[in-house]
Design goal:
about 190 residues; alpha+beta; 2 domains; 3 helices; about 65% helix; elongated
């Protein structure tokens, strides 16, 4: 072999040796990169899965919290309503007695003793939220009045208005306790 050929063969051999470790490094790197990629993919999948679980659990928590808040508000409103309107049945039972008092006052020509008792009782009931309806001369409202009868109107302006009150209506804390029984002009 000539020197030149020998140098060329050595150079090729050296080049192969130099290239061979690079190929091995490349294979190792490929394996390492593949493992890293798999690890990253599996980590990314785990992170995504955990994120989804967290979102589901957070949603459940928010719904449960909202449901509890609604329950708490509803029970507080019911308690307040019970306190305000708890005496509704008692007030309904007393209304016929009030009617009898009013009849007694008009029959006895406003005797002072009966009038005193009536005023005292009405003052106490007003403090508890009872209030009489003033309906005579007002327009008929089926939400507040119960029409007992109708009579012909004396003039056009009187049509559809309450002419007479047969039985007073009452409010309890601004809610209708008893509808007023009225006579309406038509």
């Amino acid at each position: 072999m000539s020197k030149k050929e020998h140098n060329t063969a050595d150079a090729e051999e050296k080049q192969e040796q130099v290239q061979q470790p690079e190929v091995e490094l490349t294979k190792e790197q490929d394996t390492e990169i593949a493992q890293d990629t798999e690890a990253e993919v599996s980590d990314a999948d785990k992170i995504q899965e955990l994120g989804e679980k967290l979102a589901v659990m957070n949603d459940k928590y928010l719904r449960l919290y909202s449901e509890y808040e609604n329950y708490r508000k509803r029970t507080n409103l019911e308690k307040a309503d019970l306190l305000i309107n708890g005496s509704k049945e008692m007030m309904k039972a007393i209304l016929p007695v009030i009617d009898d008092f009013e009849r007694a006052i008009s029959a006895t020509a406003n005797e002072e003793g009966v009038l005193l008792i009536y005023n005292k009782m009405m003052k106490i009931l007003e403090q508890k939220g009872l209030k009489a309806m003033e309906v005579k001369g007002e327009k008929f409202d089926e939400n507040l009045h119960e029409a007992i009868t109708r009579i012909p109107a004396a003039d056009e302006a009187q049509k559809g208005t309450v002419v007479d009150v047969v039985e007073k209506g009452y409010y309890l804390n601004d809610k209708v306790l008893r509808y007023a029984k009225v006579v309406v002009a038509f």
